[in-house]
Amino acid sequence: MLTVVRINFIDSFTFALLRAKINPQALGVWGFSAPWHVTYPDVDVRVDSGVVNLPAVLNARYGNNVALVPLHNPSIPAVGEIWVATQFELTSGKSKPGTVTAVDGSNWHVTRKVALPSINMNNPHNMWTDRNQTLIYVTQWFDSKMAVYDRQTGAFIRIRPMS
Asked: Quick check: helix, strand or coil at residue 17?
């Protein structure tokens, strides 16, 4: 039995993890016509108010068999470039998933994918740029260093240790 002190922990963090693991859209799979059916592990969880059954609580609170809305571009164009950490995208030449994707906000087209197989970049997140907007800094989930690459070309520049 899993013991959790705060029910909020179960409601937000665990729920997000469980849904992200099995949501086809979170895995980059689009175009499903069938509703999204979630199967939660049948476990009892000890919370402040006693013991609850995880699937019973989450199904009652969030429902199930959710219709997936078809993807579409926003009706209003963005200004500039949008960088997205596509953490779970699989690419060849790497043992862990993860790319960074650049999108042209004026037309919503993907303009660049950065995978950095030379350093086995994994689960990228938390990006920022230098003041000249020429370099992109990105942290990795399974690492204690951040990758630095060229914003225009996607070329790897260096690894920076994080303290």
From this structure: helix
- Quote the pLDDT of residue 121: 93
Q: Which two tokens stand for residue 133?
A: 């907007």
Rounded to a whole number of angstroms, the CA Rg of the chain reads 20
Domain extents for the chain? 2-62, 81-161
Q: In the structure encoding, which two tokens stand for residue 80, read together? A: 């500039």
Within 8 A by CB and 6+ apart from 160, the residues are 137, 145, 146, 147, 148
**For 65, what's the count of Cα atoms within 13 Å in the CB-facing half-sphere?**
0
Specify whether the CB–CB gap between 4 and 10 falls below 8 A: yes
State the Cα–Cα distance between residues 81 and 108, nearest whole angstrom: 9
- Name the CATH architecture for the domain at 81-161: Beta Barrel (2.40)
> Do the beta carbons of residue 73 and residue 53 sit within 8 Å?
no
pLDDT in tens, 30-68: 555 677 788 888 999 888 888 999 899 888 888 888 777
DSSP one-letter code for 51: E
